[in-house]
Amino acid sequence: MLSCLQRASASLVVLTLFFASIPAHAQPVEVVTTPAEQPADRVYLSNGGMVQGSILEVLPNDSLTIVSAATGDRKSFAWSELAAYEQGGQRVEIGAVSAPAPREEPAPVYGPRLHIETTKPASVHLYEITGEMVAHGANVTVHGIQYRPVCAAPCDKVIDTSGGSSYFFGGEGLTTSNRFNLTDARGDVTAVVKPGRRGLRTGGIITMSVGLALMALGGGLFVLSKSRADRDEILGEGPAEPPKYGAPIGLLVGGAAALAGGIVMLVLGKTRYKLKTGGLGLLRPLRFG
Q1: What total of structural domains would you count in the chain?
Q2: Within this chain, do residues 79 and 132 fall inside the same structural domain, yes or no?
Q3: Suppose 84 and one of 38, 44, 119, 289 were both cysteines; which one would form an S-S bond, judging by CB atoms 3.0 to 4.6 Å apart?
Q4: pLDDT tops 90 at residue 126
Q5: Where is the signal peptide (predicted)?
């Protein structure tokens, strides 16, 4: 009986050693990771207050919206009310909102209000002389001006005369007037403009040139006829026929008429003006040109 127990004990020992020698396979253990809790968003106000919750909307230079963790209410703050805010652990400082630059007010216009009337239909403009140029060469002097348009008839606007510039009237197809200055003018000024046509002035120059040429030719023929008659008389031969002064005199008269007509056309072709001050029919002459 004892020997049987000893054999059984030996068998158990052998089995125990056998199973102990077999390597054990460990079962994989699933590790559950818990995500780190995100910090709550915070809004810091410029008055020292703070709101904690979840930021919904950020509009730079406009507003910020957050859902309060304490009350669950949605709150919006103007950008000027914010000092800083934290979102997702990132802090954003908010500087002072720069105020828009003040709009520059135009300098007050100093000068009279000008009204332009024309004696006949024409596109009359007022021009301001902004610069002048004089160039000298060999027996030649060139004079030029720079100008800019100010207004067109009837104008009815205040003219800035603070720069002391000179002005003149003109327009498309028109001749220019004489210069004038409005520095001393005040209140309402009316300019009555008589437009001069450029074509009429050009025609006057041509007519004057033709008249001068005819007069020169007539004078030359008259002198030639007279000198021939005097020579024949001095030589005692006597003129074969009386001198003919008809053609020279005709040329002289025609040339003089053409010259006079050209001068009239030249004068009528120039743009002229009359400036008057006052209003409501109480106008008094100021200047002519």
Answers
A1: 3
A2: no
A3: 44
A4: yes
A5: 1-26
- Answer yes or no: are the C-beta atoms of 36 and 26 closer than 8 Å: no
CA 32 – CA 13 distance, rounded (Å): 41
Q: What are phi and psi of 265, to 5 degrees?
A: -60, -40
Q: Report the candidate in 194, 184, 186 with the shortest Cα–Cα distance to residue 114.
A: 186
Q: One-letter amino acid identity for 285?
A: P
Q: Hey, what are 131's tokens?
A: 């610069």
One domain, residues 118 and 182: yes
210 within 8 A of 279, measured Cβ to Cβ: no
Q: How many residues does the chain have?
A: 289
**3-class state of residue 76 by DSSP:** strand
**pTM above the 0.85 mark?**
no
- As a whole-number percent, the residues of the chain with pLDDT over 70 amount to 73
Q: Are residues 216 and 86 in the same domain?
A: no
Ramachandran angles phi, psi of 79, nearest 5°: -60, -30
**How many CA atoms, within 13 angstroms, populate the side-chain half-sphere of residue 1?**
0
> DSSP string covering 168-191, please?
EEE-TTB-----EE-TT--SEEEE
Over residues 161-182, the mean pLDDT reads 88
3-class secondary structure, 50 = strand
* Rounded alpha-carbon distances, angstroms, from residue 241 to 23, 202, 237, 238, 259: 166, 44, 11, 8, 33
Q: State the Rg of the chain over Cα.
A: 54
**Cα 289 to Cα 285: distance, rounded to the nearest angstrom:** 12
Note whether 75 and 212 are same-domain residues: no
CA dihedral (96, 100, 101, 102) positive or negative: negative
153 vs 134, more confident: 153
Q: Are residues 151 and 282 in the same domain?
A: yes
> Do residues 192 and 284 share a domain?
yes
